[in-house]
Structure formats: C-alpha cells, structure tokens
Amino acid sequence: MGRQILVVEDDDGIALPLVRTLSREGYEVLRVAEGRAAIEQATAGEVELVVLDLGLPDMDGLDVCRRLRDLGYDGGIVILTARDGELDRVVGLDVGADDYIAKPFALAELLARLRALLRRSSSRPISAEPGANAPAAASATPLTVDPASRRAHAGDREVQLSTKEFDLLAQLDRHRGAVVTREQLMDEVWDENWFGSTKTLDVTMARLRQKLDDAGADVRITTIRGVGFRLDEGRADA
Length: 238
What we know:
238 residues, alpha/beta, Arc Repressor Mutant, subunit A, 2 domains, five-stranded parallel beta sheet, three-stranded antiparallel beta sheet, 11 strands, elongated, Sig_transdc_resp-reg_receiver, CheY-like_superfamily, phosphoprotein, DNA-binding, two-component regulatory system
C-alpha cells in the first residue's frame, strides 16, 4: 500500500486531476471536500500528508490547519489557496503549515514539494482529542538527533516532530551550546529570501520546546532575547 495523502478540496476541477496524478504516482489518496471531514480523516490513522485548500464550504482552511496541529497531527500540511498577499502566507505558516502554494499551480511543482515533505516528515496516529491517551511524563533522558534519518530520540523513545520542528532542532543541535541567531534559523529552515513575519519561528519553536519536554529530553531551548536561541544540556525544570 502506498503512502497515504489526504486531499482537502471542494473544487472538482482541481481535486480530480490531483487525485488521479497522485494515484498514478503510487500514493494512496483520500479526498474530502469539507474541513470537518478533513479533521476526522487526518486524525483517524494513517494519513502522512494533507493537501489543504483554504476556501472550504464549511470552515476556513486556516482553522482546519490550526485544529490539526492542536490535536497533535504531525504529518506534513501543504496549503493551496487562490488568495493573494503575504499576510495569508504568514498566517498559514504560523498555524502550522509546512508549505504554501498559490493557485493556479503546476502539478509537477506540487508533486516535487509533496515528495520533499514526505521524505522529511514523520507522522503518527493520534487521539481524537488533545490529551487523550497522552504519555506519562518521562524522566530526563539524553537527546540524540540524526539528520541522515531525520529522527530524534530521547533515550530510546522517538520524538515525533513535524518537518519544520525537526529542521529547527537539527540546526540547534548542530551548534549545541552555542547561540544560533534568528536570521540563521530563518535562512536555513525557511528561505534565505523570506521577507515575511518571523512570528512563525516563535510558534514552531514553542511546539518544539513542548515536544522535547513531553518526551523527557534532557535539554532545554534557551531564548537569547533579541539574538536567537541556544540548545543547552539539562531540562528547564531541573
């Protein structure tokens, strides 16, 4: 069975060709046309990547994205939109999207972006509500980061991270104990030509901190106000 992609798009003229193309590429493709159905489907099990339209009939796609991240969905999310302007792009990334592509788009470009996300991202089945079946707090354990496999472990337990979360952690780990500037992180993890709000960095960093803490990793991310961040040994509450 191929890797599972969820297409959330109410326009048949866009959704049907996309579903056919993805199926020909060997993916298992699910398609829904509404936001609530997307949330149910993505949180039900094996969806590894969501292709999400913003203009859905029942709720805004940004709210769908935010809800998926709030529920703990760790797969890739690519936003599709016909909206113009930097603001929508920034907001989309702030609420947890990994990538953003404007309509009309070339299928070849979209496929390339999806392949890149699937190579880098990891996902896991999650509970239907936040906190349900949440793991018990773990004792502090050493953090190891393997850029080759794109996996991070606290002891023998894998820390489930989204694409951007892992990229941030890998950059901090590469310079463990030293300050990495905000500009360096934006250039390496997002785009050296990024001119939008850097709030997306703070939002993603907050999620990363929480996941490391939940996993019991014996590290802490220290904010150096006005400069950047540093990955230090020892938990913040130690």
